[in-house]
Amino acid sequence: MSANHETRNGLWIAAASFVLWGLMPLYWHLLKNVPSLQIVLHRIVWSALLVAAWLAWKQGRGWLKATLARPRAAWMLALSGVLIAFNWGLYIWAVNAGHVVESSLGYFINPLISVVMGVVFLHERLNRVQWLSVAIAASGVAWLTWQYGQPPWIALGLALSFGLYGLIRKLVAVDAVSGLAVEGVYLFLPALALLLWSETHGAGGFGGGYGIVADGLLIFAGVLTALPLIGFAYAVRRAPLSVVGLMQYIAPTIQFLLGVLFFNEAFDRDRATGFVFIWIALAIFAGEGLWRARRQAALPAAA
Q1: Phi and psi at residue 98, in whole multiples of 5°?
Q2: Which positions carry the signal peptide feature in this UniProt record (predicted)?
Q3: Closest CA to 117 of 151, 155, 160, 78
Q4: Which pLDDT tens digit goes with each residue over 204-224?
């Protein structure tokens, strides 16, 4: 298979992964009658079973030992598992509580939050354009805080939890699928125990209480958790990371459009002003990154 064909496949699969992530609010909306905690617990259990089985089929039974043998992997993946479970829970609750637009804001500002974390924790340096992007985005958040009397807590919670998750996964240096599987192993037994406790104490409804359709959707949530992440891991190995990085804005854009057009959430002039600040910041940040990547790619050719 040619390199160009591999690259095209990677870009198509990346686009499909981001579209799937963007459409997730529609899926969680189908489960709006199921408590958010129950959805998260089922998502953990079924995705852990699916990803662990897939890795066992691809790599044999030694995949867990090999992954945990990495330096600091055991405790760092436990921490990242807690962070991603919190992120999932907050996101599902926000969608089914009518906060899809604010949830999309969290994933719009997440790349800039990640940049700031790189500066704080990894001592990375930003150029003037990148600092300008961060300042404009902070102005947008400040505007929203001033207009509504409180910070956009849902957006900030999603961005910070996912930003910290990304930071830990960068430090632990394991591939995306194996890392997700280990996180699932850590979370599996507590999630299963909570589910069983809920079922025996009248707080659950799986197996009849929610209906057969809802039961099927809860099980398939594990597939929807694993598929886009596996696709993303496939894509970043075959397509330019700078392009895949720009494509990540597909997901929050779809979420935002769903929030306004499908869920009919309020989006007045004051909220739009805050979003415009953040969109301008993202456009500057993404444009600078793309220009820098093209400049670096041109240097070997010039030499």
Answers
A1: 85, 35
A2: none
A3: 160
A4: 778 767 788 889 999 999 889
Contact call for residues 246 and 290 (beta carbons, < 8 A)? yes
Q: What is the pLDDT of residues 87-107, one digit of tens each?
A: 999 999 999 999 999 999 999
Distance CA 220, CA 105 (A): 26
Q: Write down the domain spans for the chain.
A: 3-302
User: Cβ atoms within 10 A of the Cβ of 225, count?
Assistant: 22
Q: What pTM did the predictor assign? A: 0.87
Burial 195-207 (b: 16+ CB within 10 A, else e): beebeeeeebbbe
